[in-house]
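Subject: complex prediction, re-run

Hi both,

The earlier run crashed halfway through, so I resubmitted it with identical inputs.
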Amino acid sequence: PGMPMNMVSMGTSGPATEVLCLMNMVTPDELKDEEEYDDILEDIKEECGKYGIVRSIEIPRPIEGVDVPGCGKVFVEFNSQADCQKAQQALAGRRFSNRVVVTSYFDPDKYHRREF
Amino acid sequence: SREKRRKKRRSRWMGTENEKAVIPGMPTILPADLTPDQTEAYIAQLQIEELTRKLRTGDLGIPTNPEERSPSPEPIYGTDGKRLNTREYRTRKKLEEERHKLIQKLMKINPDYKPPADYRAPMVKIVD
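This time it finished cleanly. Structure:
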């Protein structure tokens, strides 16, 4: 099938950071519901905690009439790059709500500035 | 209470570290320096591949437990007395519509994108 763009570098993570970006896990619709959002947050916290110390999690939620950057992605900040790396190895390709989880490292500065 | 509810429900995570989904040609670890457009295109393509696989294999993901299925609409029967809007038919239609939307989106981001061979754009209904 036609690759969308130059996919040569796909499958390589680049240098590790302590922030993991998880994609293809949640839909904006699921995040609208308060209980569902809480459950999703809890599921992610619990699983990521198996691979290292989780410092913080950000799940951008939809806002009516606003194009929220990063909505649909999940960001997990670990205590160290090593923890983050372990989590990436463990979680990439797992299924969450039957969707295949895609991961990448994320720039910690951007994360702290909430530039999703 | 919240605690009780949490104990009853299952985690959304499936499988273990050793049971990973493999989609040919679609790695699940991406470089950090992709643009938002590239990421969006990649995720759309991955979703299209998954939907294509489901439609081709007939493994539509209908829950085996009837309690987990959504309620059925009123049945519609054909002239031969067979039901037309079966769960399989409805699920297939939903997956095809989902795939159609994703393909449209991806073609907008990347005009060179070639849709899967078995993809047909749905017929446009002409309203008088």
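The interface with chain B takes residues 1-5, 7, 9-15, 17, 21, 23-24, 35, 38-40, 42-43, 46-47, 88, 90, 92-98, 100-107 of chain A (CB under 8 Å).

- K.
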